[in-house]
Specification:
This protein has one domain (3-241, 279-303): Rossmann fold (3-Layer(aba) Sandwich). Helix 1 links the parallel strand 1 (3-5) and strand 2 (22-24). The chain has ten helices and twelve strands. The chain is an alpha/beta fold and 305 residues long. Helix 1 (10-16) packs across helix 3 (47-58).
Length: 305
Amino acid sequence: MPLTLPDRLPAIDLLKEENIFVIDSSRAMSQDIRPLRIVILNLMPIKITTETDLIRVLSNSPLQLELSFMKIKSHNSKNTPIEHMKAFYKDFELLKHEKFDGMIITGAPVEHLNFEDVNYWEEMQEIFAWAKTNVTSTLYICWAAQAGLYYHYGVPKYPLSAKMFGIFPQHTLKPRLPIFRGFDDIFYMPHSRHTEIRREDIEKVKGLTIIAESEESGISIVMAREGREFFITGHAEYSPLTLDTEYRRDLAKNLPIEMPRHYYRDDQPDKGPLVTWRAHANLLFTNWLNYYVYQETPFDINAIH
């Protein structure tokens, strides 16, 4: 089944080149099926890249999805054309009276700041509170995972001495959970962050369950409310070249950056990345959509609470 996307979204043409089945909203209106409504709050600076990464991993589901893109009113994107934002994104103010089957909140380049010092933190708190009662299941990714854990459960973040950067092996701690159906005992996930959350803080909170972690990169997935919330500290959605782009960008700016670990073939950047995470990334998002969104959301979307 295809994803239903807004007409003229740039990701449509990019993904069709990869033989990924997507349809625009005009065609979808002729189908007598209730698609799952998924809203993406995209906080990343280069919006089109993140849109494409997320649509790529969502596209493997047999379910029909209707995607909407949310933005925050209190922050303007400097790296995405304003025409794109006006065409495809809606302010939270315009969407907060609606219900959604699923939501994805991305990372953001504000890790160096305390949460309260982020200039859109007030609006983020309103969105977090809204998602709890207006969305069946929400995925919080990277910075959003740390921010969501802090807002909902008081879990702090801590600065790292060096950037957690690379592809790291993860262990499933609750392999019988539907989110891990079809997973191997070890799976790989990209990480690119300067802060961390710690096991001892999460274990203090009733209702939080650590379901995957790594000896190298620490906690990777925390679940709450029986799967209505997933907090993912890495970037399963990343395309093969994302870390390479980040690495070369920082080198060009003379920023302190180490080569991403377990990423390049023979640890040689000129040989390119060895992709080890794509299959499990697709499975993670497919399982989330199937078991925690589709099978849990009511047919009457207004019954979500």
